[in-house]
Amino acid sequence: MPEFIDQDIKFLPGVGPQRAELLKKELRIFTFRDLLYYFPYKYIDRTKFHKVSEINANQAYIQVKGRIKHFDLHGEARKQRLSAVFYDETGSLDLIWFSGIKYIRENLKPGQEYVAFGKPSVFNGRVNLIHPELEGAEKEQITTGVLQAYYNTTETLKKRFLTTRAINKLQYNLAIQIDGKIYETLPPHVREKLKLLPLNQSLRQIHFPENTHTLQKATYRLKFEELFYIQLKILSLKHKREEAFKGFIFSTIGYNFNKFYENNLPFNLTNAQKKVIKEIRRDLGSGKQMNRLLQGDVGSGKTLVALMVALIAFDNGFQASLMAPTEILAIQHFNTIKKMLDGIGVKIALLTGSTKSRERKIIHHGIETGEIQLLVGTHALIEDTVSFHKLGLVIIDEQHRFGVAQRARLWKKNSGIPPHVLVMTATPIPRTLAMTLYGDLDVSVIDELPPGRKPIETRHFYENRRKEVYQFIRQQIESGRQAYIVYPLISESEKLDLKNLENGYELLKEVFPRYKLSMVHGRLKPAEKDQEMQLFKEGKTQIMVATTVIEVGVDVPNASVMIIESAERFGLSQLHQLRGRVGRGAEQSYCLLMSSYKISNESRKRLETMVRTNDGFEIAEVDLQLRGPGDLEGTQQSGLGINLNIASLGKDGEILRVARNMASDVLDDDPRLEKHENQLLLYHLQRMKNTEFDWSVIS
Ligand code: ADP
Ligand code: MG
Asked: What residue stretches are annotated with the Helicase C-terminal domain (predicted)?
C-alpha cells in the first residue's frame, strides 16, 4: 500500500485516466505528490474588481465583471480572430481570441454575467483583453484569502481545458484530503532552530495562501527543504569519499621546487598565490585525496600555481598531468611551462588528439616507465589508454568545460590510491552555484591580480562610430601594440559563421591595408591554428581575426585592444572571458564592444555590466540573475542537472547559505546520520536516489 501522496494522479477526484495521461505527459505529474509539489509561478490579488471605465493599457492584470453583447468573426481560415464586446454599466471593451474560437462561441453566452481576467492592451483606440480568462460571475474563486495561485500549463493542456484555473481546482481537491496524511520531512531539531513552518501548512499555504506573510513563510520553508537536501547529499558524499579514499602524502619540498623558486621564478608571487599554495600544500600533506577548485580571474596567475604544485609532486617521486579544454591551450601550456622549467630538468611531454601514432607510442612508453614526469594534453588524456607509472596529481584547467563525471573518471586512473585533483577555473562561479555544482570540492580563490596591471577600459559603441573605433585600433598598432577582432557565431550553420568571419576578414584587410592579419576559427586544423597563433604571438601579424576559439587562456601580452563584433550576441561570462585576452601586459588595454542599435534590455544590461566592472565575480552574479543557472555556461556540461522545483540559485543565495550551514552542522555532529533524531534525514536522502538528480556522477 503506497503512502497516500504516492498514489497515481488518476485517482484524484477531477482527474481520471485521460487527464492523468495528459498531466503525466505534459507536466510529469504522476502522483499526488507531484501535483502537490507543482508550485504556482505567481499569485494575483483577486479581491479587486475594476469597472470598465477605469481600465487602461498601462495596468497589469485586472478583473472586471460584465456581459458579452455579441461576437464578431474577422479574417479568413487560419488567420481568424474572434472578438466580443464586453460591457458593464460604465462602458465597454473588447475580448479577443486567436484560437479556440469554436469552443468560445459554443460555450459563452451573450447576456450572462462573467468575470473576465487579463492584461489590458489597446488596439485601434479601444481597450481589449486578449485571451482573457472567463468564468461565470456566480462561481466562487478557490482561494483561502486574497491571493490566487497561477500555474504554468502547456498549449496542449489548455486545449484540453487543463488551464491554470483547472489545476488550481485539482490542487483544491487534493488539499481538502491531505489533513493528517502528509508526513514532515524535516526533523524537529532542524525546524525549530530555523523556526520553519511545518510541511503540511507550507504546502497548503503555497497553493492557497491566506496572506502574503504566510505565503512568504511557506515559500521559505519549501525552498529551504529543497536546497538543504541537496547540500546534505553533496556533503555526505564528500564525507564518504574522504573516508573511502586515502591520498598520497607529499611530504617533501625538494630540488625541483626550490630550484625553480630560486632560479626560474621571474617575479614575486602575489599574496593570493602564496595563500592558495599553502592551502593546497595542507591538502597534500593530509593523507586524504585532494579535490580542490582553484578559482581566479583571468590573468590572476593560476598556471603558475599549478606548476609549482606539480613541482612538489615531482619532488615526491610522482608524475603529474595537466589537461586543457582545447588543443591551442594545451600547446600553449606546454610551451610556457617548458620555458619556465628551463634548466630544471623535468621531463615533459605533450599529448593531444593530433599527436602522431609513432610519437604517441614513445610518449605512452615514457609515461608507463615514469620517465616522463609531466604530461600536458587535452581531454584525450583521459580517453586515451595512457597508463601512468605513478600519477600523483591531475590538474584540470578551465573546468567549465570539464564535467564532473569526467573528473570522477580520473580518480580511477590509479588502482588503489587516486591522484590529487586540482581543478582551475577562470569563470568565476557565484558562490551559490559553486556550492551546488562543485559542492563536493574545497575551494581556493586567487582574489588578487599581479601588481602593475592596469584595469582594462571597456566601452560600448554603436555602428555609427565604427570609423573612430578603427582609427583607435590604428593608433594602438602604430604605437607597437596588437589587436584582436572577435566575431560571434551568428547562425546555426558553421558554414555561414565561417562566411561571416571570412567576410569580416576581407573587409578588415581593406580597412587596414598596411597591417598583417591572422585568422583563427574552429574549422582550422590544429596545426594551422597553432601556426596562426604563433605568428600573432611573435608579433609578425598585428591583428588577430577570430571566433571565440581564442576565448580561453590564450596569452599574448602585447595585444592591448580587442574589438568584439555584435557584442550583444555574447553571453556575459563569454564576454568576460574574451576580454581577459587583453590586459595581460604592462600597457593600458581596451575592450571595445560593437553592437547594433536594436538590442534587447537584457543585452543592454550585459553590455552595461561589462563597461561598469572588471570584477569577474560581480559579472558572474549578474549573469546568474539574468539567465538563471540552467543556462550558465558549464552547468550543462557539468553532468549535474540541477533541477530545482522552487528555489533559485540566482535569487536564493541566502537560503542556500543557511541550508549549507545546517547540513554541515548536522553532518559534523553525526557524519553517517546514525542518530535517532536524524533518521528522517537518512530516509529522505535515500528516497532522493531515485530522483532526476544523477548523484552517481559525483559519488
Ligand atoms: P590565468 O591562467 O589565471 O588566467 P596565467 O597563469 O596565464 O593566468 O597568468 C597570466 C600572466 O601573468 C602570465 O603571463 C604569468 O606569467 C603572469 N604572472 C603570474 N603570476 C604572476 C606574478 N605573481 N607576478 C607577475 N606576473 C605574474
Ligand atoms: Mg589560464
From this structure: 465-630
- Domain pair 205-452+651-699 / 457-613, same fold: yes
Closest ligand to Cα 304: 1
How close is the Cα of 324 to the center of ligand 2, in Å? Answer: 9
Residue, of 2 and 360, whose pLDDT is higher = 360
**What is the domain partition of the chain in residue ranges?**
1-46+146-178, 47-140, 205-452+651-699, 457-613
Longest dimension (CA), the chain: 95
Nearest residue CA, atom 15 of ligand 1? Answer: 301
CATH code of 47-140, in short, is: 2.40.50.140
* Sign of CA pseudo-dihedral 48, 54, 55, 57: negative
CB of 620 within 6 A of ligand 1: the answer is: no
Ligand 1 contacts CB of residue 104 (under 6 A): no
Q: Is the CB of 273 under 6 A from ligand 1?
A: yes
Angle at 129 between CA 124 and CA 133, to 5 degrees: 165
Pocket test of ligand 1: the residue of 555, 556, 582 to mutate, having most ligand atoms within 8 Å of its CB, is 555
Output DSSP code: residue 394: E
Q: Name the strands in the sheet holding 113-118, side by side, starting at the edge strand that comes first in the sequence.
A: 120-123, 126-130, 91-97, 81-88, 62-74, 113-118, 133-136
pTM for this one? 0.67
Strand, helix or coil for residue 382: helix
The residue whose CA is least distant from atom 23 of ligand 1 is 269
Nearest to 135 by CA among 65, 85, 222: 65
648 band by pLDDT with thresholds 50, 70 and 90: confident
Residue-level pLDDT at 428:
67
Which ligand places an atom closest to the C-alpha of 302? 1
Chain-wide mean pLDDT for the chain? Answer: 86
76-94: pLDDT as tens digits: 877 889 999 999 999 999 9
Residue 555 CB–ligand 1 contact under 6 Å = yes
H-assigned helices in 526-600: 526-537, 572-579
Which atom in ligand 1 lies closest to the alpha carbon of residue 296? 3
Instruction: State the residue for C-alpha cell 581564442.
Output: 550
Residue range 413-426, pLDDT digits in tens: 666 788 999 988 87
171 in contact with ligand 1, CB cutoff 6 A: no
Taking domain 205-452+651-699, whether its CATH number is 3.40.50.300 is answered by yes
**Residue 304 CB less than 6 A away from ligand 1:** yes
Each as own residue / partner, the long-range contacts of residues 643-647 (CB below 8 Å, 24 or more positions apart, any chain) are 643/692, 643/693, 644/226, 644/227, 645/37, 645/39, 645/226, 646/39, 646/219, 646/222, 646/223, 646/226, 647/223, 647/226, 647/227
Q: Is 66 helix (H, G, I), strand (E, B) or coil?
A: strand
How close is the Cα of 298 to the center of ligand 2, in Å?
7
Question: Which ligand neighbours the alpha carbon of 555 most closely?
Answer: 1
Taking the CA of 336 as reference, the closest ligand is: 1
Residues within 5 Å of ion ligand 2 by Cβ? Answer: 303, 553
What is 457-613's CATH topology?
Answer: Rossmann fold (3.40.50)
Query: Strands 62-74 and 81-88, how do they pair?
Result: antiparallel
> What is the DSSP pairing of strand 420-425 with strand 391-396?
parallel
Residue at grid coordinates 564525507: 239
Residue nearest to ligand 1 atom 24, measured at CA: 450
